[in-house]
Design a protein that fits this description.
It is a single chain. Helices cover 40% and strands 5% of the residues. By secondary structure, it is mainly alpha-helical.
Length: 338
């Protein structure tokens, strides 16, 4: 153990700034593997790096001398060096050497979190717009805003934050930086969510000459189910691609989609207000005198389960009802063609 700490393990005494410093990124001699790779600058220029061979020839004394430098000095030395270290690749993001299939996924940097919070709270932009502009999923944007609000509330209350622990954890994980001029895509933001009505096995016979679209597929699964193009989190991106393919200019696409999004947001706000008012009207509230609780009563009808007994408005629908499409003995092939 002591020999390893004085030899290859000396590289981990003062971790390399701006790197995850996983064990799999170094060889058995404690040399950084990617140091021999070419360095990519601004994603366009490639400058060959020749310091990989030099690093491989360093002795243990020179390695120990380099490890005695502080993180700030090593960072300045790396920035000022004419032979910079290349960025990490997926092969360098393997925290467990015996499990090469697992790779550490990037997390949002603190600068990107602050920018998300600023755009949503200060600039009053919608979550959908921020998600599309920064390449972060809408659910994650909402989570960042809520957690940042809690953090700022704690600071106002004078509570201590575990900033050193957070900084140490963030240094061990790959991060998605914030670049105003060219945002880095953090994750896929337009994945189609799985609807519960699409979990059944359906065999639909159709003629070869029929033009079967996604709209037709949605109608087969359930009446009123929207097609996949409108159920994705960002249907405006699909519409933008269609408009661009039809010859529309960039400014026309932005103006049209912006007006459409504003109308949809206003319509959604009105629907939410109407739904809440309707629910409040159908609920009878009883507050006992000198009581700390509020009892709410809602009228329930046995007919609300519908003719099949599976309507979501029925009592007990939340407990679920298993489908029988995979049950033995059930006929899965259509008996007739309509």
């Amino acid at each position: 153990m002591l020999n390893w700490l004085k030899g290859p393990g000396a590289a981990f005494k003062d971790p390399l700034p701006g790197s995850t410093n996983y064990l799999s990124a170094y060889d058995n001699n404690g040399q950084l593997i990617r140091a021999g790779r070419p360095f990519f600058k601004d994603d366009d220029q490639k400058t060959p790096s020749s310091h990989g061979e030099e690093n491989s020839e360093l002795g243990m004394d020179e390695r120990a001398e380099n490890s005695e430098l502080g993180m700030d000095e090593r960072a300045e030395q790396n920035i000022a060096s004419e032979k910079p270290i290349p960025l990490e690749r997926p092969d360098d993001l393997v925290p467990f050497p015996m499990n090469r299939q697992f790779r550490s996924q990037p997390v949002l940097s603190e600068e990107l979190k602050d920018e998300i919070y600023r755009q949503v709270v200060a600039d009053e932009k919608s979550v959908r717009v921020v998600s599309a502009s920064l390449g972060v999923e809408m659910a994650r944007v909402g989570a960042v805003v809520r957690l940042k609000a809690v953090e700022k509330n704690w600071i106002d209350q004078g509570k201590r934050l575990a900033i050193p622990y957070s900084r140490a954890v963030m240094q061990m994980l790959p991060q998605t930086p914030y670049r105003p001029e060219k945002p880095v895509i953090h994750e896929s933001i337009n994945d189609l969510p799985v609807h519960r009505d699409t979990l059944n096995q359906i065999f639909l016979p159709a003629s070869e000459s029929r033009h079967f679209t996604r709209v037709d597929a949605a109608k087969v699964f359930a009446p009123g189910l929207k097609p996949a193009d409108t159920r994705v989190p960002h249907p405006e991106l699909v519409e933008a691609e269609r408009m661009t393919a039809d010859g529309a200019t960039r400014q026309e696409v932005i103006t049209t989609l912006r007006e459409k999004m504003l109308r949809e947001e206003q319509l959604q706000i009105e629907k939410v207000k109407a739904r809440k008012a309707r629910e409040e009207k159908n609920v009878k509230k009883v507050v006992p005198p000198q009581g700390r609780w509020e009892f709410r009563f809602r009228d329930i009808s046995v007919e609300s389960v519908g003719p099949t007994g599976r309507d979501h408005r029925g009592v007990g629908a939340r407990y679920g009802w298993p489908h029988e499409d995979r049950k033995r003995g059930q006929i899965k092939i259509p008996k007739r063609v309509e």
